[in-house]
Amino acid sequence: MVIGLLLSTLAHGAPIDAQWDLAEGAEHRWVVATAIDFPGHIFVRANRNRDVRARHLGLQAVVDCVVGEEHRGASDVACTVEAASWTGMTFTTEAGRLQPVLEELEAKLTGATVDLRLTADGHLRGVEIDLTPVDGFINRRTRSTDQFLRMVVVRALAPLDLRIPEGGFPTTETWVDSSSLTVSMPVTWGSSASGHLVHRAIPHDDARVVVQTVGEATLVPGGFLEPGTLVLDATLEGFTVFDHDSGRVSEAVFTTTAEPTATSGPLARPYRVQNQVRALGPDEAITLPPTRELEPPQT
Predict the structure, then answer these.
(1) What contacts 72, CB < 8 A, 6 or more positions away?
(2) How many angstroms separate the Cα of 90 from the Cα of each of 56, 58, 141, 281?
(3) Banded pLDDT at 222 (limits 50, 70, 90)
(4) CB-based burial label for 246 (10 Å; 0-12, 13-18, 19+)
């Protein structure tokens, strides 16, 4: 069991007091990245008549977030996507078709507004997105594409969903979370997930604490358990650095690896997600890699 890998002696001391800085007007800025290897493929759609199967997608983005009003126990946080870039890979038979679709997705996401609902203890209650118009019209196809983009953005922001236990980060015991976004799965037709994450806090210095996480989850793309349905047994491991002076996640790295169960059929492939988050200064400049289609392996 992966959870059994959470070893070594816990530090001894009082809990570390920490909470998010959600004072109205507070600014938090991050560069986020996610790389997703799908267990089969996912259709990536342009606004007009272009569908391409993607077996891999990567998103890198810079988000500048400003805290708004608090109500019902959570604060509205408005984030602007300053810059975005994509990588993607399709199959050999469709090589070259993905690049213009990725460029359209980049144009849609750059300048978009992402609205978060965040509690002081770190629970990311909701993520909504208002995308930049590309062709100036809305129909079922564009709504489907927009929903797909929202799910990828949710996956990129998932490491921010780190709940701080009541009283602060404990340094003498682990704690459990069963609903983190880090076990979510971006698919176009819905999914279900049941996870069990174990966290352990390690004091780093006077300003920061490192939270080590391991976990297990069951993922079901489509959300229904039926004969032949793809079911994935996932393991997750990573760490989060929380800066309790600035009241935010300053760095996070997570890897989720999921293997299909025996009932999923002989063609099912593993699912893998890598997440990285790093806090940026208000004026810190960063250049993202260009949007590009990756060459599929010659198999």
Answers:
(1) none
(2) 7, 12, 20, 36
(3) low
(4) middle
Domain ranges of the chain: 2-282
Looking at residue 3, its pLDDT comes to 38
Cβ neighbours around 299 below 10 Å, total: 5
Class of domain 2-282: mainly beta
How many Å apart are CA 229 and CA 286, to the nearest integer?
Answer: 42
Measured CA to CA, the distance from residue 38 to residue 157 in angstroms comes to 18
Q: Which amino acid is at 268?
A: A
Residue 211 tokens read as 């939270």
Q: Are 132 and 88 a contacting pair, CB within 8 Å?
A: no
Distance CA 51, CA 22 (A): 41
Q: Identify the helix (H) or strand (E) that includes residue 141.
A: helix 140-157
> Which pLDDT band, with edges at 50, 70 and 90, does 2 fall under?
very low
pTM above 0.90, yes or no: no
**Is 54 within 8 Å of 39 (Cβ atoms)?**
no
User: What single-letter DSSP state applies at residue 296?
Assistant: P
pLDDT tens digits along 23-66: 999 999 999 999 999 887 888 888 777 889 999 999 999 999 99
Spell 207-244 as b/e; 16+ CB within 10 A means b: ebbbbbbbbbbbbbbeeeeeeeebbbebbbbbbbbbbb
Q: Which two tokens stand for residue 92?
A: 């050999």
* H or E segment to which residue 130 belongs: strand 124-130
Q: What is the pLDDT of residues 123-141, one digit of tens each?
A: 998 899 998 776 665 666 6
Q: How many CB atoms lie within 10 A of CB 107?
A: 16
